[in-house]
Amino acid sequence: MAAVKFEYAMARLETIVAELEKGDLPLDDSLKIFEEGIRLSKTCLKMLEDAERKVEILVQEKDGKKRIQAFSPGEDELENPQ
Amino acid sequence: MAAVKFEYAMARLETIVAELEKGDLPLDDSLKIFEEGIRLSKTCLKMLEDAERKVEILVQEKDGKKRIQAFSPGEDELENPQ
Amino acid sequence: MAAVKFEYAMARLETIVAELEKGDLPLDDSLKIFEEGIRLSKTCLKMLEDAERKVEILVQEKDGKKRIQAFSPGEDELENPQ
Amino acid sequence: MAAVKFEYAMARLETIVAELEKGDLPLDDSLKIFEEGIRLSKTCLKMLEDAERKVEILVQEKDGKKRIQAFSPGEDELENPQ
Amino acid sequence: MAAVKFEYAMARLETIVAELEKGDLPLDDSLKIFEEGIRLSKTCLKMLEDAERKVEILVQEKDGKKRIQAFSPGEDELENPQ
Amino acid sequence: MAAVKFEYAMARLETIVAELEKGDLPLDDSLKIFEEGIRLSKTCLKMLEDAERKVEILVQEKDGKKRIQAFSPGEDELENPQ
Amino acid sequence: MTGHNLALPLLLSVSDVTRLIRESLEEQFQDVWIEGEISNLRAPSSGHLYFTLKDSQSQLRGVLFRSGALRLRFALQEGLSVIARGRISVYEPRGEYQLIVDSLDPKGVGAFQLAFEQLKERLSQEGLFDEARKRRLPSFPSTVGVVTSLTGAAIRDIVAVLRRRCPTVNILIAPVPVQGEGAGASIAEAIDVLSEMPQVEVLIVGRGGGASEDLWAFNEEAVVRAIARSRVPVVSAVGHEIDVTLSDFAADHRAPTPSAAAEAVVPVLAEIMERLDELARRLRRLVDTMLQMQRHRFERSLSVLGETRFRIQAQAQRLDELQDGLTRALTAQLTVLQRELVERRHLLLAQGPRNRIERFLVVIPQLCKRLEQEARRGLMSRRQSVAMQMAALDALSPLAILQRGFSIVHTISNRKVLRRASEVTVGEAVEVTLAEGQLVCQVEKVMPSSIS
What confidence tens digit (pLDDT) does each residue in G278-335 have? Predict the structure, then answer.
């Protein structure tokens, strides 16, 4: 997912919609960018669905090395912010 | 079909229609362009129907995928390497 | 028939009718141009009927195709390489 | 009949009537031109009747064709190569 | 008869009558012209009757033809090649 | 008789009457011319009678012919080739 | 306050005395240095700053006019101890004296403040705080790095807001002490580490509110420089809104609170989804509209094309008319000609020789009749003439004497009428004519003398 930037996809999708809105494209070009738009919207949706939703913490080991580990600090605390 | 632009065909068709509407063409000329118009209209219709079908397929595909994705996100990614 | 322009024939026919309507032609001249007029009108009628038939065929063909297209778009394309 | 112009015959007939009206012709001369007048009037009548018949034939021929065409357009075209 | 002009005969007849009326002719002369007058009158009458018959024939012939033509135009044409 | 003109005879008769009226003629001369006068008058009468008969015949002939002509014109023409 | 002031007139107006006091004060306090604490600070829109300098016992009103205020290198704050330099004057409308400040320097915080100012000045010279360096935050980062303390409300607030707004975002926390000895170095190191991690797209650096000394770590040069060199955009969130640190100056975005920082870093996922949905819908609608439009355009052309048939039919109608016209015109001419012919034939028959013949047939018998009459009349008149002559002859007849008894004797031989007896000889035969009849006699005797 990292390779395809979600933002880029969204921006391109917006551009495509704007292009189509101008309405001065030839039929086959319209169809082409429509297809691209459909694929982009699928990609975006997929990116969102594929997201991992992790909360991690960078921990310093005794040897000074740093390590990432999952973090669930008092879930209660996170879920109920005052 | 790819060689004939829909817009070109439509523009020519509209020119023909305008010519026919003016009604000052000799009979055989109007027959000739009528024939051309009929051929063009067939071409245009075909292009339009192809486009409509393509849109339909793309849209259905999208919706179909969406539903499939909801159950097996991993497989989907393998089938559509973007 | 191709050599005789429909419009030319019609114009000549109009002239003949006008000449006859004036009623001051010698009888045998009147008869001669009447005969010419009858022949012209037959020619014109034939041309119109041919034209009508042609239009009919083209239109039917178009409508027929349309119906065929709805069932087998691929074949249609092969039969009409434009 | 082709040699005698109807109009000439009519003009001559008129002259004859005028001559007879003047009444100063010798009997045998008046008989002669009366006879000529009678013959001329017959000739004229015949010409008119011939003309009428011709018109009838031409018109019927035209209408006849028309009716035939409506049923067998192909054959008609072969019979009348114009 | 052809040699004797009707008008001449009539003039002579009238002269004769006038001569006789004058009454100064010798007997034998008057007898002679009386006889001549009688003969002239007969001649004139005959000429008139001939003319009458001829007119009759011409007029009847014309009407007869007309009636015949109405029933058999083709035959009529063959019988009267003018 | 032909040689004696009626008018001459009448003139002689009148002379005779005049001579006799004068009365100076010897008897025998008187007798002579008287006798001549008688003769002349007879001659004249005869000439007149002849003439009358001739006129009658001519008239009858004319009227009779006319009546006959009405029934058989052809024969009449043959019998009187003028 | 010299004696000669007593030489003033006994009665002074308030203005006069106020003016005199002002002149007197201004003369004596032209340039004074005064130490005190700022209170009652007011900053109206004019740009002038009004405040009260106070110490434990006294207060002095002061004003720093706009030009001086702009020259200040720090923000004037309530309770700040300062050394002010200026002159004493009187505000005549109120009769109040006040310090008109020329320059103002902080006092009390002393070294910290000075260091802050010096560092700020230096880093600013380096361009670290330039607006141009500030980067746009990613609009939808997949992973957010957070540099803060694990204890305290800040991390709680940040994680809660991030999860609430955008449940899909990954959060990577680098826990650091945020105050006390070594805090700055830890923070700077954490920033470096996180900013170098490829998945991190944006950093939040900060802590909750506290005393200004507690926030000091975020003014340290190491932290400020770490923020400035971060690979990814940094959002600073130190203390409360009023707390200003150098980190705030260096960060790409300054958030007033940690919660605000979390809000600035991620969008609301629901909105994104909605936008995505909307785009997909619009995409579909646009294509449908375009296809419909083209279809409509096409159908219109097609229908006009279909009208070609009507155009041909119109021509056929015109042709029919012409055909009718053709036959009608010729028939009309034939009718006219026929009528003319009939008229002429009528005239011919009327003017024919028949009349003349009939006339002559009348005339000739009349002539014949006249002929006959004349012939008969001529004969008749002649007959009358003859009769007349005959009658005359009859009347004149020499034989009339015979009726009276005379008779005529003439010789037989030469029929000579005898007048003398001597003319005959005896024995000669003579003829005697009587009134009626004749006698032939023989002469017996001749007697030559007359009977007298």
Answer: 998 999 999 999 899 889 988 888 888 888 888 888 888 999 999 889 989 999 999 9
Rounded to whole angstroms, how far apart are CA atoms G236 and G128? 15
The pTM score is 0.57
For A:21-50, CB contacts with B below 8 A are 26-28, 31, 34-35, 38-39, 41-43, 45-46, 49-50
G416 lies within 8 A of chain E by CB: no
Distance CA B42, CA B49 (A): 10
| pLDDT tops 90 at residue G162 | yes
- Cα–Cα distance measured from residue B32 to residue C38, given in angstroms and rounded to the nearest whole number: 27
What's the complex ipTM?
A: 0.66
Instruction: Give the residue among B66, A47, A37 at the shortest CA–CA distance from G285.
Output: A37
Tokens of G340: 């003319």
Taking the CA of residue C5 and the nearest CA in chain G, the distance in Å comes to 14
Cα angle G248, G254, G256 (rounded to 5 degrees) comes to 105
What type of residue sits at position E33?
A: I
Q: How many Å lie between the alpha carbon of A66 and the closest alpha carbon of chain G?
A: 9
Residues in C 49-78 with any Cβ partner in D closer than 8 A:
49, 53
Of D72, C20, G322, nearest to G314 (Cα)?
A: G322
Please report, for residues F35, G400, G418, G419, the alpha-carbon distance to residue G410 in angstroms, rounded to integers and kept in the order given: 15, 17, 5, 9
One-letter amino acid at E76 equals D
Q: Alpha carbon of C12 to those of C40, D81, D82: distances in Å?
A: 8, 21, 17
How many whole angstroms separate alpha carbon G316 and alpha carbon G371?
82
* Pairing relationship of beta strands G234-238 and G253-254 according to DSSP bridges: parallel
In angstroms, the CA G4 to CA G207 distance is: 66
Q: Which positions in chain E touch D38 (Cβ < 8 Å)?
A: 58-59, 61-62
pLDDT at F71: 45
b (16+ CB within 10 A) / e for C36-67: ebbebbbbbbbbbbbbbebbeebbeebeebee
Q: At B45, which helix (H) or strand (E)? A: helix B27-69
Measured CA to CA, the distance from residue D9 to residue G450 in angstroms comes to 108
What whole-number distance in Å separates Cα of residue D78 and Cα of residue G304?
Answer: 33
Q: Which of E63, E64, E52 is nearest to D34 (CA)?
A: E52
Kindly tell me the burial class for residue G314, based on how many C-beta atoms sit within 10 Å of its own C-beta (0-12, 13-18, 19 or more). exposed
Structure tokens at E67: 């009636």
- B39 against G108, higher pLDDT: B39
> B42, C62: Cβ pair inside 8 Å?
yes
Give the length of chain B: 82
What is the rounded distance in angstroms from the CA atom of residue A46 to the CA atom of residue B68? 12
Q: Check whether D50 has a pLDDT greater than 70.
A: yes
Compute the C-alpha angle F34/F49/E31, nearest 5°.
115
Element (H, E) at G158: helix G153-165
**Dist. CA C44–CA C46, nearest whole Å:** 5
